Amino acid sequence: VNTTMAVWMGTTMNCAQCHDHKFDPISQEEYFRLFAILNNSQDADRRDESPTLKVMSEQKKEELAAKVEQIQKKIEGIKARNTKDFQPWVDGFAKAAKTIPVGFEKTGENEFSVQLPEGAFEGVSLKTGHHASPEAAFRLDRPDGKPGQDGRHVRITNIVRGGYLHLAEVQVFSGSENLAPKGKASQVSTGFDGPAKYANDGNTNGNYTGKSVSHTAKANDPWWEVDLGKEVPISQIAIWNRTDNGTAARMKKFRIEIFDNAHKPVWKRELS
């Protein structure tokens, strides 16, 4: 403080450090106000060389430039891939939607049955006419809740973190015939002497000691799957859980999926 005032203001402040002086225009309070300002500066009489200005060396500049170039190449590669995939996606919207009108049959007081066309379709549109109540609500359901889908692979997944999947039997019906025993079973892993084939051996006994229950090792979302050999119409799937020692409760939430020949999903349902 003293040096600053002597150099830049041409006056001394020595006396004001301790007390007001009748011949000094600067009071003790003003002295410490200036002291507070300087004490909160970056310098503040610290025992170092601050404030300093960091200057990057040539070697560091070259390293940074190389990293920037590497990142830029990655960005350009991502942009090139996204542009390639983006255009076909945009072109898909240029095609006019094809609508297929379908009729309905009244099957109850507030229930109607609609026969949808075979094959894949994007959505369902319902027009109510001019006399429908604005509070009306509609729901579209599959009549029996069954798959009704052609498929080759059927997968059961226990949705759990660090858990097991054990199945007494999985039945896959095409009409009245259970095709699962003819299929090839597999699972994410095998634990406790419970191979995958135990779950499609035709035996629904859920007691593990009966040697008819499949069992995986501990895993996240463990799964079991049966390959039916070819795509077939699947009308119903039945799952028999393990029943001994309260272990059935391990399957609190699970997923059933049907895949086609290319192992692409064509039907899925989660149950809990």
Question: Could you explain how this protein is built, in words?
Answer:
The model has no long low-confidence stretch (mean pLDDT 82). With 272 residues, the chain is an alpha+beta fold. The protein has three helices and eleven strands. Strands 6-8-3-10-11 form a five-stranded antiparallel beta sheet, with no helix packed on it. It is 21% helix and 25% strand. Among the domains are: 2-39, no CATH class; 149-271, Jelly Rolls, CATH 2.60.120.260. It has helices spanning 2-9, 28-39, 58-94; strands at 104-108, 111-114, 149-158, 166-174, 177-178, 184-187, 214-215, 223-234, 236-241, 254-259, 265-271. 16% of the residues are buried. The longest helix is centred in the N-terminal third of the chain and has 37 residues, at 58-94. This is F5/8 type C domain-containing protein.
Top keywords for this entry?
272 residues; alpha+beta; Jelly Rolls; five-stranded antiparallel sheet; four-stranded antiparallel sheet; 11 strands; 21% helix; 25% strand; elongated
